[in-house]
Amino acid sequence: RVYVDDTQLKGTRGGFAVGGLSDQGKQDETEFLRVTPDSVRISFKNLTTGGKGARGGFAVGGLSDQGKSIPTNLLFLAPDSARVYVNPTSGKGARGGFAVGGLSDQGKTAADNFLNLTPNNYFIGHRAGESITNGMYNTFLGYEAGLKSEMGDGNIFLGYGSGHENVYGALNVFIGNNTGYFFTGEEDGEENIFIGNTAGYNSITPANSIFIGTRSGYACTHSYANTFVGDRTASFGNAGSENTLIGASAGFSITGENNVIVGSRAGNAIGAGSNNSFLGYSAGSNTSGSFNVFIGSNAGDNEPNSYRLHIASSADESLIYGEFDNRLVVINGHLEATDGYSKASDINLKTNMVKLSESLGKIQTLTAYRYNWNEQAKADFNFSNKPQIGLIAQEVEKVLPELVLKSANGYKTIDYQSLSAVLIEAVKEQQSQIEELKEKNELLNKRISELENLKVEVEAMKAKLGL
After folding, report:
1. Domain spans, the chain
2. Which of 84, 158, 291, 447 has a 20 to 30 A CA-CA distance from 412?
3. Which pTM was predicted?
4. Tens of pLDDT along 201-248?
């Protein structure tokens, strides 16, 4: 026995004990350490009233009132369990595995667990994994992480309230405070990765999706195969499926499907638009159309239509504009090609061939102009302010209607490439005229030469005659 400075009596007999120093009579003693063949007990000052540590295994309990009353355990180690009790009022830790439970009222009431480790599941945090029944191979860490999980397998929830409402979802990884909070996992909600505070917070049953960033995929109620990377990507809308969004607030209000949007604020107000491809800061940020391709900073920023192409560095002017539904491409600048460009022309692809005639006359009816685009043209098509040279489509249409095309917006364009074929025939016709004139000129020159020779002979005869 080892006695320390305390006002209580000596330790009890038997085994090895550390008890009080003074007044060691036969009165009730105060023990600090007791070792016997069947137990080891360590007691220290504790204001909570209760009995001695439980017998069996190794226990740390309260110092005072060590009678036969209900003990106040702080640490209990036994062959089948290890329990650490902390301050909240609750029942003891559950038996089996390793558990941390409440300090007081350690009766047979339900436990309020902080740590529950079993071969099948690891739960760390206040009420983490509390409702688990058949679920296996789950790891929950954080206050009420996976609180309502019952049957889902292979989930990893890390963070305050992470996976809080999940019931059936499986093979999900949620990292961050309140990630996937209202995710329930019903209707095949599985194989998701949510990373970032409140990522997927209100997403009920998404599947096969990746949300990375604060509030990323915040409200994707029923969707699948989405990839969102960036702060508040798809944060506002009930996102559709198979979308790829990268960049802060990219696709912020998206509800459509099959979109690829890369760039901060790109596709910000896309809504129900689907099958779009946006690349660049704020590209397509104010459009809600579908089947559009916008490339560049602010490209297609205010485009109201679908099936459009914009390649630009600002919202003011697109270097390349296109209409997929009308098979139209407009290049607002000078086009250069090191290897040229071509148009299908194989004879094996053609029928009803008729040689052009009177091409020169048709060309002669056309007039070339120097001009500038008006304000409407610049507003509708982002045309440049540079002076232009060209023909008038309406004038060309009168003599060569095949070369004039009409777009969906009603404006007419000229197929200048095909016009070259008409010019070739016109040159040939003009060359024929030149050749004909040449022959006539040679004939006239010959006759003139003959007349000159005849004149010389006449003059010679006149001289002989003395005329």
Report:
1. 244-332, 347-419
2. 291
3. 0.68
4. 998 888 999 999 999 999 887 889 999 999 999 988 787 899 999 999
